[in-house]
Write a structure and sequence with these properties.
heterodimer, A: 234 residues, mainly alpha, B: 103 residues, 4 helices, elongated
């Protein structure tokens, strides 16, 4: 039952999510090939860090020889986004009979793609199968990411510029389509709208903190508007 | 690299700890979920409006048009992300090439 869910997750990750991850990691590999970072560091960090922006920051700072404390701090900062994702997806995966450690193992697999894609899908299947599905989905993504980061590392010089542009654009357009296409309720729509406006605005003020500020300020605003409208209707 | 791996995991693990104590139907939970969605929407919008690297050489309205083409196909095909995203990304590449041809 659960292994069936695992394989279903792996199978259903094939398609747009995998294509985007493959393209992203191809890009990271190509980017890193111009630095002194070894291909092994890229492959291993894909399994252990499993966060594209974090890995990008790591490669970039490694290259300029930043002190390890600064690298660690920067990587942690780029990954604060996992906290709200983890808090919101974990209750969805809870089911009687799962040991506690399983949740902590599962947490390692949380990333932007798996969170965005799986949040709506998980809620449509029986609770016991959700963790298996999620791990199958994510593990397949990680393996493909690791393969493509190595491919990108070695193939960097031979990708034509037009294709490169399309590849790089896959990440933003994928999330745009998934988020805007899957809005179901007013609160979700408000959160997306407020975030979409706040993101670029905060980037003008403070590029390093823009993601976190956009989330907290935009999200709080959306929550407040939703609350006020909800209260009025009752 | 080991430290970076741990630094990334801290947030995920902490989420399990905190997530276990929150009611999915409570206001706190709703607020955190708003923050999570707004954060991603903000990041994605920033990548579309003010990208860095090679994307910065393309036009803003080309990028926006490509996104809307992708979204329209996604809605039209009832959720086929692969075709929607692929066509959207390809249309940006084509628009950008055409710009080079016609000056």
């Amino acid at each position: 039952m659960q292994s069936a869910a695992f394989w279903r997750g792996a199978r259903e990750s094939m398609g747009a999510p995998i294509a985007v991850i493959a393209a992203n990691y191809l890009g990271l590999g190509a980017f890193a090939s111009a630095t002194a970072v070894s291909v092994w560091a890229l492959v291993v960090s894909t399994f252990t860090v499993w966060a594209l922006p974090g890995q990008l920051v790591m490669v970039d700072m490694w290259m300029v020889g930043a002190p390890w404390v600064a690298v660690l701090l920067a990587v942690m900062l780029t990954n604060v986004r996992f906290l709200p994702m983890s808090i919101t997806i974990m209750p969805v995966m809870r089911a009687p009979g799962h040991p506690r450690w399983l949740y902590y193992v599962t947490a390692h697999f949380i990333a932007m793609t798996s969170w965005v894609v799986c949040m709506p899908r998980l809620q449509k299947m029986p609770a016991v199968e959700r963790i298996a599905y999620f791990i199958g989905f994510s593990l397949n993504c990680i393996v493909v990411g690791a393969i493509f980061v190595a491919l990108g590392y070695y193939a960097a010089a031979s990708i034509p510029p037009a294709v490169q542009l399309g590849l790089i654009f896959l990440t933003p357009i994928n999330f745009f389509v998934l988020l805007a296409g899957e809005v179901r309720d007013r609160m979700g729509a408000l959160a997306l709208g407020c975030g979409a406006v706040a993101g670029p605005l905060f980037h003008l003020l403070t590029p390093e903190w823009s993601v976190i500020f956009a989330g907290v300020v935009g999200g709080t605003l959306a929550f407040a508007i939703n609350k006020i409208c909800g209260a009025r209707r009752v | 690299m080991i430290l970076c791996s741990l630094g990334s995991y801290v947030w995920r693990g902490l989420g399990v700890l905190l997530g276990g104590r929150l009611e999915p139907d409570s206001d706190v939970f709703r607020w955190i979920s708003c923050v999570a969605y707004a954060m991603i929407a903000g990041l994605v919008m920033r990548l579309i409006v003010m990208p860095g690297g090679p994307l910065a050489a393309s036009l803003f309205w080309h990028r926006m048009l490509a996104c809307l083409i992708g979204l329209a196909i996604y809605r039209g095909l009832r959720g086929n992300v692969f075709i929607a995203v692929g066509t959207g990304a390809a249309s940006l590449a084509i628009l950008n090439e055409l710009r080079g041809v016609f000056g």
